[in-house]
Design brief:
Elements lengths: L2 E6 L3 H12 L4 E7 L2 H10 L4 E5 L7 H10 L7 E6 L7 H7 L3 E4 L4 H12 L4 E2 L3 H10 L16 H11 L4 H8 L3 H15 L4 H10 L9
Parallel strand pairs: 1-2, 1-3, 3-4, 4-5, 5-6
Length: about 220
């Protein structure tokens, strides 16, 4: 199955480079390139994209608001958003995740990692750039301006709390299963139930809950 990718970035050269990279992958195709958030929103609707690679800082409509409108549009329910950001200069990552982004990467990610990220997010997994990003999430979530999470882990069973902690550390279903001695199907079922109990749209929002509740901190990553 070919992943239909929409690229949204206000820099022409960046879009062109990403387009060449994506088109080099046999399982992907670029269905559009947008220079503004509004164009990204319109093209997500018109080009039937599976995934939008979204820059946060764009004119007309920024990437966060474009992501929020994509996530809120029932006709775009299957469209995933992967946000690209610049660590240490962009402080809107949590807003993007709360708006509905399924993950983010820093812009200096290696080409192969970007392609893997697109595949991961298109498959329904959350993806958070590792390393210093964890510290940035922690700092933003503890800032006074950070709104509270929609729900907490108090309603979860002990096993579900274990699963949530591993998901927040970036493990996929197979890795969670191996860590806890479960089958991949059982791990997937636990994740689905946790999302239902917490009212989370995807795994990225589970990460937010885990950080805000204190279940996961940078030191535990």
């Amino acid at each position: 199955m070919t992943i239909r990718v929409l690229l949204a970035d206000d820099q022409t050269l960046v879009r062109a480079a990403f387009a060449m990279l994506v088109e080099s992958a046999p399982d992907m195709e670029v269905v559009g390139q947008a220079a503004t958030g509004r164009e990204a929103l319109e093209m997500a609707r018109s080009e039937r994209a599976d995934l939008v690679v979204m820059d946060i800082r764009m004119p007309d409509l920024d990437g966060i608001e474009a992501t929020r409108q994509i996530a809120a549009d029932e006709d775009l329910a299957g469209v995933k958003v992967l946000v690209l950001t610049t660590y240490d200069t962009d402080e809107h990552i949590i807003e993007a995740l709360r708006a509905g982004a399924s993950g983010f990467l820093v812009k200096d990610t290696r080409p192969a990692e970007l392609l893997d990220a697109i595949r991961t997010v298109a498959a329904g997994e959350a993806l958070l750039s590792p390393g210093p990003t964890a510290r940035l999430i922690e700092r933003l979530l503890r800032s006074p301006s950070a709104p509270p999470a929609a729900g907490g882990p108090e309603c979860l069973s002990e096993r579900e709390r274990e699963v949530l902690t591993l998901v927040a550390r970036g493990l996929n279903n197979t890795e969670v299963a191996e860590a806890l001695g479960l089958s991949p199907l059982t791990a997937k079922t636990h994740v689905s139930r946790i999302m239902g109990k917490l009212g989370a749209r995807d795994r990225a929002q589970l990460v937010i809950v885990a950080y805000e509740s204190g279940m996961v901190t940078p030191g535990s990553m």
